[in-house]
Amino acid sequence: xxxxxxxxxxxxxxxxxxxxxxxxxxxxxxxxxxxxxxxxxxxxxxxxxxxxxxxxxxxxxxxxxxxxxxxxxxxxxxxxxxxxxxxxxxxxxxxxxxxxxxxxxxxxxxxxxxxxxxxxxx
Length: 122
Known about the structure:
The chain has 122 residues and is mainly beta. The protein has strands at 2-7, 10-12, 18-26, 30-39, 46-52, 57-59, 67-72, 77-82, 91-100, 109-112, 116-120.
């Protein structure tokens, strides 16, 4: 089993910044990809950004040039630096990890954090 613990959400004014963190713990062999998704009220959960074990990242068009995803593989932790925040970035942000639980696993297992609220409002 893998646990994902998120931190760093909160209330910020438009144009402000926040940094989210997500640490993976538990028993597993390796992490293939970690990332962030978000879900606003009445909307489907959507991709924000992902980063793989080679530190290759992928972003939603709506956050490119404003958000930066990074990782510390030694700490099994992923970060999301969010700058120039807009009211439309308001959502619950969920950490995701694709994890190989044992050596030789044919495919990774998918885990989610509990979510952290980000509210952008004046």
